[in-house]
Amino acid sequence: xxxxxxxxxxxxxxxxxxxxxxxxxxxxxxxxxxxxxxxxxxxxxxxxxxxxxxxxxxxxxxxxxxxxxxxxxxxxxxxxxxxxxxxxxxxxxxxxxxxxxxxxxxxxxxxxxxxxxxxxxxxxxxxxxxxxxxxxxxxxxxxxxxxxxxxxxxxxxxxxxxxxxxxxxxxxxxxxxxxxxxxxxxxxxxxxxxxxxxxxxxxxxxxxxxxxxxxxxxxxxxxxxxxxxxxxxxxxxxxxxxxxxxxxxxxxxxxxxxxxxxxxxxxxxxxxxxxxxxxxxxxxxxxxxxxxxxxxxxxxxxxxxxxxxxxxxxxxxxxxxxxxxxxxxxxxxxxxxxxxxxxxxxxxxxxxxxxxxxxxxxxxxxxxxxxxxxxxxxxxxxxxxxxxxxxxxxxxxxxxxxxxxxxxxxxxxxxxxxxxxxxxxxxxxxxxxxxxxxxxxxxxxxxxxxxxxxxxxxxxxxxxxxxxxxxxxxxxxxxxxxxxxxxxxxxxxxxxxxxxxxxxxxxxxxxxxxxxxxxxx
Length: 521
Hints:
Elements: E1 4-12, E2 15-21, E3 26-31, H1 37-49, H2 52-58, H3 60-63, H4 66-75, E4 85-91, E5 100-101, E6 110-119, H5 124-131, E7 143-149, E8 164-168, H6 175-188, H7 192-212, H8 215-220, H9 236-239, E9 243-244, E10 247-248, H10 254-266, E11 277-281, H11 289-300, E12 306-310, H12 314-319, E13 325-328, E14 335-337, H13 343-351, H14 357-361, E15 365-369, H15 372-386, E16 395-399, H16 405-415, E17 418-422, H17 429-434, E18 445-448, H18 458-465, H19 467-474, H20 483-489, H21 491-502, H22 510-519
Parallel strand pairs: 3-12, 3-13, 8-11, 11-12, 15-16, 15-17, 17-18
Antiparallel strand pairs: 1-2, 1-4, 4-6, 5-6, 6-7, 9-10, 13-14
């Protein structure tokens, strides 16, 4: 199976110089907004498509790195310093003579495809005149669009070295995207002789319609008449649609369209021209939780295709294996992977209840707390301790079951996320809070707990420093339980009431105060 090993981007959209390696089967692109997830999918689509018209439709002014263009214009550079835009797609080695060569920035003999958009040499004189004008604009119109293989051979969209499909669920109602999807699916499921036969028969039926149906009408019109279009804009491919139970997918709900399009692309077949690469843009769009789980299961079972998924969904990332995640950062051109994550941790998140793992991965500083009570009260405690809100300091709080702390810390070690664990000592701080985390002694990780074993839980620790507030709120009406016992028996409810009525008066237990001070450093 032919697949993509690596991509390199130069002056393409937000990337000035970027390189990333891919897994041969599954690649999960995650990151915050404007981090480049969609950009990578678009770059792959453009090069694998080999379509000059695709580039022209989008426009070079929207593809070439805007900062590079602005910098060039500010510096009033000459034609010799005009920037070029390059996308290089490195393929797995098959020593294909049509693909194999050194026409790449690495200077290595390998298989690959390349798009280069650069100033046209014959027009350098005209470009120079434009740039010498008062208030000049960037000469996008004088750029060439050239697709070539690493062997140096030019190629166009008529030749597909890898058969791919781009399913963009963020544009589910876009007519052009729908037509392109149907066209790609059709071309991937017919052999060339079948396609020729279908097109010929379709034209014949149109011709018969003119003769058998329109002839009577045309006789009335004299020298004028009606005909049926058979040009490139009105043919079998443009008129095709995909149906489910006889209903066109365009007439389905958005969620169902997303599901059908993705599942149809993933279906197994024995046709020689089946897909090699599938690009999925936000497959979670418009899907219910149930259909999301079905789709994830369908993707996980797919074989003999290389899949790229750009997503904001934790379920997709965890169920499809966190080790396949590629992290992108909107503030830099760096990327990171979780490929070294322990296998048992990756499998834990595959089977664990739905979680907010992406919230953790996309955070710089995190407070991991053990239960609902801590989670409910931490906002107030943090603000009372620091005078600032959590979001002002970009600190994220995640509630984690006590047995799951180490799973999150495995990720924190790899991604260098500053992580403070706030946990109960459960009556033995030495065993539960020190020995258990010896393998996580990192600069970016610290465990916080009460060293007094008698203060075994958060509620006990919290009551010790907030007795007056808690007694005032909970003591009236108590007959059998003490205030502390009541709080232990009603952890979430008592925490909610404290937050709702006494938020500004709450004091942090010492170990939580230390955690807050450490996380904000």
